Amino acid sequence: MVNLAQAVQPNVRNTRLSDIYGFSEQLAQIPDLVSLTLGEPDFPTPEHVKQAGIAAIMADQSHYTETWGRLATRTAAAAFLHERYGLDYDPATQVVITNGVTEAMYATLATLVGPGDEVLLPTPAFPVYDSLVELNEGHLVEINTEPDGFLLTPARLQATLAAHPRAKVLLLNFPSNPTGRSYSASQIDALAQVVAQTDLVVVSDEIYSELTYTGRHVSFAKYLPEQTILFNGLSKSHAMTGWRIGVIAGPAALVTEIAKVRELMSTSVMTAAQVAAAEAFGNGMNDAAPMRAEYERRRDYLYTAFQALGFQCEKPQGAFYLFAKIPDRFDLDSAAFCQDVAETAKVGLIPGSSFGAGGEGYVRASYATSMANLHEAVRRLQTYCANH
Question: Domain Aminotransferase class I/classII large: where (predicted)?
């Protein structure tokens, strides 16, 4: 019999995929489950954005675009980044449109990371970063931020760099999935001053930037543009996860190389989706405001409710996740706890262990669902906790 496994490259075979989706699908088989697992906006894409996409289809805009993305879409994305965050990018040489931020991340890490290259990642963090580093045969260095309220501090970054002086890339994600934590301008400035003394390339995933509750989001690229590759997009801000619109922006010398890899992955992004994206970045610049207000209302409710149940947690400053510490009286690891809660209370949560160092002992709850679902989930958790 032919051994097909030997045809697979070891780095692919050894790459671990996120167990978030698998765990969520497993829990979905439980009848009457109230799921707080996935970060999928429960709002519709804004009507004017949908109509722009429909009009593009009806006008037969169904052919290849420039591999970097339509110039009109890149121009709209650059204008959005300038207006919202004070960033200046040349759409012709510094901006690429991608099939979501996942493609942006793959193309960027494939460009920057080779065998043995060290990549610094503050954790807990979305596990796709870990998987992509493994796939490119890099070495992931986790920086456990749990002792510092789930924020990377300059002191901890300096200590990590002292131990790993040849580190090549620093991955950041804020507002964070899974913790909802983010950084103030002064905190980013302090981190940037540390990075500026190194040759690190900062890859800053800021896809949740428009879902920031405490003032306006401040981009890392504002303080260190010459060393930062920025990711943004429309999945979270405009409830457009299925449209697959991401943005890479950064120094032209790096973006040009990243664009080569991205072109080999999918040639270009769907044309009608790019037309809709230009509408979203332009006339829809403020579309996230009502969604953000509703997410903030849900956050306040869930944060207060979880604390009342004995779950300690840092108050989320953005995104739509609550990262809560399991009360000490439960003698279960996070995976076993989430399984028991799902089977007993019929509430779906994601184990903190899915997010790397500092995540064990916590659960992630997504409040990208209706307030009615949140009320029902809390009612069930109240009963569960009262019986344990």
Answer: 32-381
